Amino acid sequence: MRRVILTILLLMWTATLTFAATLQAQGISHIETTKAWYYIYDQSGKKIRTISTSQGELKGYSATFYIIKQGTAFYTTYDANGKRLHTFGADGVGEIVGVAGDTFTSRTKAWIYTWSKDGKKISTRAAR
Question: How far apart are CA 85 and CA 38, in angstroms?
Fold first, then answer.
């Protein structure tokens, strides 16, 4: 009887670990853009999300997040599963010039900023 109970507990534990691994965010491999949709794919080529282009303009992406510009007023960062991470005022951020890892870089006339995907300003330097 103990062996049966231990076997059942082991199977339940394995199923729980498998389920937890499935819930982790997949990495973004690429985003395909059409007139009406953004298709987000993971490293295995599986489509993990579809977003309407009416949400805004895709400004960039990395393996961990992507940025959508909504109108002229806001940038919003999202994780690979589409969860909103942070919304930035476009006036304070400037123009997005690059996205890599967990950060992105923006530029105004006078300054270059590096931001985390979660909204923290990491660095500021004068633009040339």
Answer: 18
- Name the domain count of the chain: 1
Cα separation of 108 and 116, whole Å?
Answer: 17
Give counts: helices (H), strands (E), the chain: 2, 11
* Helix, strand, or coil (residue 53): helix
Q: What is the pTM of this model?
A: 0.77
pLDDT tens string 13-42: 676 655 444 445 579 999 999 999 999 999
Q: 45-62: buried (b, 16+ CB within 10 Å) or exposed (e) per residue?
A: eeebbebeeeebebbbbb
Instruction: Return the structure tokens found at 59.
Output: 């400004």
CATH number at residue 88: 2.40.128
Domain that holds residue 49: 2-126
Rounded Cα distance between 13 and 72, Å, is 49
Annotate 96-111 with b (16+ C-beta within 10 A) or e (fewer).
Answer: beebeebbbbbeeeee
Angle subtended at Cα 107 by Cα 105 and Cα 108, rounded to the nearest 5 degrees: 155
